[in-house]
Design a protein that fits this description.
Length: 124
């Protein structure tokens, strides 16, 4: 309360020294304000997209490993691409934060497999 009274008194004076003192005190008070806890999630706006289905995101990771392990086996590689495509649909309907990433990963998987196999399934 005393600090607020002093700040109000400083605001009444228009001298450069009073304004500088006010700015210094205001900066010190702002620096001493408690910070929000680090573990608190960022606030979501009303129109924020959901993060997406964790199982679908995990399916993409697993399918990418399957493609890497296929080592030229087109049937297994294409199965991996199709799993990524299904997970991508799950993450994009309804649209989630993971949709763009899923679509990019599907595109990259199709391109990677196309280097050693004919195009897999339904190219989008």
């Amino acid at each position: 309360m005393i600090v607020r009274s002093a700040l109000a008194a400083l605001r009444l004076h228009q001298s450069p020294l009073a304004r500088a003192a006010f700015a210094l005190v205001a900066a010190l008070l702002a620096a001493c304000a408690p910070a929000p806890p680090a573990s608190a999630p960022p606030p979501q706006s009303a129109g924020a997209l959901p993060a997406g289905d964790p199982a679908a995101r995990a399916a993409i990771d697993e399918a990418e490993r399957e493609i890497a392990a296929a080592a030229g086996d087109c049937a297994h590689a294409c199965e991996g691409v199709e799993r990524i495509a299904r997970a991508s649909v799950a993450l994009c309907k309804p649209r989630s934060l993971a949709c763009d990433d899923a679509q990019q990963r599907e595109h990259e998987a199709r391109a990677r497999v196309a280097t050693f196999c004919d195009p897999c399934g339904d190219e989008r």
